[in-house]
Design brief:
Elements (H helix, E strand, L loop, with lengths): L2 H22 L3 E2 L5 H10 L7 E5 L9 E5 L11 E8 L10 H9 L8 E7 L2 E7 H10 L2 E2 L2 E7 L11 E8 L4 H8 L4 H9 L3 E3 L2 E2 L12 E4 L3 E11 L5 E8 L1
Antiparallel strand pairs: 1-3, 2-3, 4-6, 4-8, 5-6, 7-8, 9-14, 10-11, 10-12, 12-13, 13-14
Helix pairs in contact: 1-2, 5-6
Length: 253
Amino acid sequence: MNNDKEEQLLKKRFFELSKIADLKGICTYTDFLNLNEISIFKSINKELPNVNYQLYGGYEGAERNVICFYGDKSVKAFSSYITCIRIKPLNKKFSDDLTHRDFLGAIMNLRLERSKIGDILVKEKEAYVFCLSSISSFIIDNLNKIKHTSIQCERMNEEAPEIRPTFKEIRGTISSPRLDSIIALAFGSSRSSMLNLISSGNVFVDGRLVESNSYVLKKGDIVSVRGHGKFIYKELQNQTKKGRYYCLILKYT
């Protein structure tokens, strides 16, 4: 199936879910959406039926999100739809150094669809996995080893885990708050090397695809670059004598 056909099917699904929520007054949900799928939604959301919607991935700042369409503003849209599972080694002392790729690979080996799994936050050989509640018991019952490490899974009772993403503070000087300049600073590269990433559709700002290298970022924008990571553009600070600006970035680690 080509990309154009997949995109049309996705748009059709958005229309169907929003229409059902509007006509029946119930909550309808997508699976977890990646950055490109969220960007597609944001490009057509004004064309959808006049119904409330919310994006949520289990915690504030999630990259992969579920969309809930709903008619009643008082509804707790995601109270039972997304579950967080904590995965930890039975014995940390003898555990492999497990990475995001290791945790995701082990879950995918259970033959689950990627769209059923949200973000995976990893810290100190443990992981917090956000997934659709409908598959949470299956993961807990069937995932018992990652690489050579025996693990255990437990369902988190609270809405979100205590763990939060951590950041590396990056400071430097740029000529202007253009997208290419700030990405180059964030990933320690040259502006010219970033141009292809932008033009080839690999850069998203607050979930929207941006393909112009001259796009001007605003304070608080979250920039995601496929294959490189993401960061928060905090602000421009003082100007240097040469007319450049000091810039502060918080890069997700």
